[in-house]
Each structure stands twice: as structure tokens, then as C-alpha cells.
Amino acid sequence: MTEAMRVELQDRRQQLSTLMARRGDDERLTALLADVDLALARVAAGTYGLCETCHDPIEADRLAADPLVRRCLDHLNASELRTLERDLALAARVQRALLPPPDLEHGGWQIAYEYLPHGPVSGDYCDVVQSPEPAPGPLLVVLGDVSGKGVAASMLMAHLRAMVRSLAGFTQQIDDLLARINQMFCESTPPAHYATLACARLGATGEIEVSNAGHVPPMMLRDGRVATIEDGGLPIGMFCTVTHRVARACLTPGDQLVFVTDGLTEARNADDEEYGIERLLRLLERIGPASSARETVAAAIGDARRFLSRQPWADDVSVLVARRL
């Protein structure tokens, strides 16, 4: 970690020096170069990543987002706090703008979701990609969870979203799409970062293809029964060359496909009991074919909240439902 940061800081210093040589005197660039030199000195002294005030570790997500930070959240001065609050508010607005419409109907499908960040920003990835074809074509629905928390996870989420949307039009095969995304994520993301991802391609006549890259198993509601779609492969970004299995089915009107993130299934109440996927499956078994996608989302969130009682969520929580019309 420290060696990787030293290399990154030296690279930034070289780029700054090159820019200053072209521009001449620039107070802002000079100050930034001084900050980089101070960070390199802390790396050499073995104190990089420690708060200058209390000497405790600085929050990992803040260091990942800005390797020049020098104080932990508890010891920011008033000006730094105001800057952080503005940055978080802006990041939250940007992230909300990346979400799909909360309720939509397209190509014979009704889609609804709930997206509940644990803090100002989230590492969950929720998306619906509509076919660019003039006639209603297949829908791609995606729910994922990037490793880590806070600002760094939200940045990786946006990075993952950009990859999915840029590659979705190049292939109609879910396994090929995941292979391409996995390769790009490995090549463009720092080591030790990965993402779980469940995605499905929904056809206009009810046919579906689903693959699960290390995510909470997607669930199918068919004829009053619930079935899980088990792991299709490893999480995205864990290894550069992996394959993912694809499950295929055909849903009839009223059937539903349900995705959740582990913030819901791993939620714990005051007695340290886990909500768990079995409880969610029992809830879904009671949902009839007349229930809308929005009603199923609300039922899942509501049941988990009743289980938690007054205990708050401990992680980002997302639920996405696709219902065949």
C-alpha cells in the first residue's frame, strides 16, 4: 500500500512539474506541489495515512479519494469541514442523477427500485439500460455492490456504471458482457477492489437471461413459488479472466425477478440477529401475481424495517424488482 502510494505520488509530482514548466509561476500549482512533497516525506518517514493531530489512521475512503489529506474527520478545522460538506453534497447530487427513473415500463416489463445510501453517497450500483432500438428491445437491469464504503466506493460505482453502459450495446450475451466488464475493471481499478454484480437481460416476450457475479442470489417469483438463481461466478475485478454462468427462463404476466444488495439481507437487529435471505424468501412467497413491482419493493423494505425495529441500517440498501406485464 505505502509503496504503491509512493509511486502514485511521484507520478503526480512529475506531472505537476511538467505542467509548471510550461505555465511558469502559478501559486496554486506551487502550493499543490508542496503538498505532494509533504505527502512523500510522510511516506518516507512511515507516517503517511496517519492524522497529524491524533496520529490515528485517516479514513481509508478519504485517502483513496484524496491522497493528500492530512487529518482525520474528527480533527478537521472549520474551513476543511465546510469544504468536505460541500464536496459530499455535490457527490450525492451527482450520484442521484446517475440513477434510472424510479418507476418505468418498457417492452412488456415494469421496473421499480429503492436506493438507500447509508451515508451521503453509496457504493451500491442500480441501473436499467434500455435498448437503443426504435422498437422496444431487451432491457438490461443491473444491481451491484462495490467493495468499500463512502466516497471511494461511490467513485468506483460511477466507474462501473460507465463501463456497463459503454459495453452494453456491443453484445447481447450476458456472459460476454460480464467478461468484458471484468477485464476493464481489473485493468482500470486499484488492486483489492472488486464488485459483486447481478444482471439480467429481459426480452419483450418474457424470456430472461440472468447472471450473478458473486452477488446476493436474484430471486424469481413464478406461480406463487420463489426460486433463487445461485452464483454464476466470481465478483467483478477479483481476477482478470473469469467466466460466468447464465440462467435462462421465460416469465409470464405477474412473474417477478427480485434483486437486493447485502445491506438488506445482512441487516442486524438489536439482538444481533441477521435478517437473512430465508426471511426474504418467505416474504416473497406471500406476494401474489397481482402485486406491482413497486409494491414488492415496498414489501421487502418494510419487512426488513420491522425486523430492525428502531435499529438503523448499517450499510447501503438497494432493492430492484422487474415484473412481467
Can you identify the CATH class of the largest domain?
Answer: Alpha Beta
Query: Could you give me the name of the CATH homologous superfamily of the largest domain?
Result: PPM-type phosphatase domain
| Rg result | 22 Å
Q: What can be said about the biggest beta sheet?
A: 6 strands, antiparallel
What average pLDDT do the residues reach? 89
Give the N-terminus to C-terminus distance in angstroms.
Answer: 50 Å
Q: What is the strand arrangement across the widest sheet?
A: 1-2-11-10-7-8
CATH-defined fold name of the largest domain: Phosphatase 2c, domain 1
By CATH, the architecture of the largest domain is named 4-Layer Sandwich
Share of helical residues: 40-55%
Helix and strand element order? HHHHEEEEHHEEEEEEHHHE
SSE class: alpha+beta
Name the poorly predicted regions: none
Helix tally equals 9
What is the β-strand count?
11
Give the DSSP E fraction (strand runs of 2 or more residues).
Answer: 15-25%
Global shape = globular
Number of domains: 2
Characterization of this structure:
This protein has 2 domains: 2-93, Four Helix Bundle (Hemerythrin (Met), subunit A) (Up-down Bundle), CATH 1.20.120; 99-324, 4-Layer Sandwich (Phosphatase 2c, domain 1), CATH 3.60.40.10. The chain is 40% helix and 21% strand. The chain has helices spanning 2-23, 27-45, 60-65, 78-98, 150-167, 174-188, 262-265, 276-285, 293-308, and strands spanning 103-106, 109-116, 124-130, 139-146, 195-202, 207-213, 219-222, 225-228, 247-250, 256-260, 317-324. Helix 1 runs antiparallel to helix 2 (27-45) and helix 5 (150-167) crosses helix 6. The N and C termini lie far apart (50 Å).
